[in-house]
Amino acid sequence: MAGEYMYTEEAAAQAAPSRLEKGLKWFILAACIAVGAELVWLLGITPFMPFSKVNVSAAEGLSRESLLAYAGVSSQSSFISLNARTSEKALRALPQIESAFVFKHFPDKLEIVLKGREAAAVAFASLKGKMVPVFFDSHGIIFRIGHEGKADASAELPVISGLVIEEPYPGMRLPAMFNSLFQQLDTLRIKTPELLAAVSEIKINRKSFDGFDLILYPIHKQIRVRLSELNQDLLRYTLLMADVLAAREPGINFIDFRSGMASYTLKEASSE
């Protein structure tokens, strides 16, 4: 009787690990099936499904819908079907866009990062017999015509005269010889906007053979200033000298800084 009891207890002890191992094997099998199904869904199905989330940075004058249309993104676009480089190229072709980057985040997210053009200055051009403001960036690219988007945008920008612009269109590029001026204007707009705010107009005076000079019209003054270039230090010094000389000699018409030394002419002795 005692031997039979000992045999039954020993058999049960041997059977217990067997049931545990069997349960563990089923658990591992079920886990492998679940992981396999997840991988099939993640790698084989989701990338072919439409994007679940699309982030688009804002661009002035362009709606989200129009940007997606230009980028070739539809409600059916997916990670697999969309060519990010083609979308970037299409977006960069828009006059309002300076740079565009399209990122596909695996498996079903899309991000479009845009940088719109910023106006460095405004000029006036002839369009269909009318004079209209045209806005261009530091590269001399016209990207907005008229007061579309910002009704008072020109009030915050320097007015450039002396440019001959006829029948402008978005994307039109101004002569490359002026790019250094436009880049300086953009730098001044960003770093020292108060200096530009003290100038009502900057006139480009073309030379007979090559190059150009500048004529500045300080705000609230009758004095005009001739410069051969434009930068932050020179503009600050020019405005200071205009204030000092205007107080000392009311009859000054022009102050000339082109030689590096300030000289001036009186109104009755000068001609533009």
Automatic annotation (TrEMBL):
All residue ranges annotated as the POTRA domain in the record: 49-117
Cellular component, GO annotation: membrane
UniProt keyword annotations, A-Z: Cell cycle, Cell division, Cell membrane, Membrane, Transmembrane, Transmembrane helix
Nucleotidyltransferase as UniProt keyword: no
Example GO biological process: cell septum assembly
Membrane-spanning intervals of the chain: 26-45
Record localization: Membrane
UniProt entry tagged with the keyword Ligase: no
Entries under PANTHER family matching the protein: CELL DIVISION PROTEIN FTSQ
Protein name as it appears in the record: Putative cell division protein FtsQ
